[in-house]
Specification:
The chain is mainly α and 92 residues long. The chain has one domain (2-89). Helix content is 91%, strand content 0%. The longest helix has 51 residues, at 2-52.
């Protein structure tokens, strides 16, 4: 009986760890979405303000930087950055 109880407690601990990992993954995805939204909002406001000042060249530059920041904030963009750093400075 003691062995069966140990197996059940081990299974419950494993399921709890999986649940914690999935919650952490969901929290990370939510954080990334919020960060991307705030980046987009900030750069959009900056480009609108510059457009009203009739500084279209700077507004376009800020909009392009904001777009690049959003693209690089995606998981694929993070992988590109990671690969670039590894190719420049060597894999560690």
């Amino acid at each position: 009986m003691h062995t069966i109880h140990a197996i059940h407690s081990l299974i419950a601990a494993t399921e709890g760890a999986g649940s914690l990992e999935s919650a952490a993954t969901k929290a990370g995805e939510t954080g990334r979405k919020v960060a991307m939204s705030l980046i987009a909002l900030g750069f959009s406001i900056a480009s609108i303000v510059l457009a009203f000042r009739r500084d279209f060249k700077e507004a376009a530059g800020i909009f392009a930087v904001g777009l690049l920041a959003i693209v690089l904030a995606t998981p694929a963009g993070v992988n590109v950055l990671h690969d670039t750093v590894n190719s420049l400075f060597g894999a560690s």
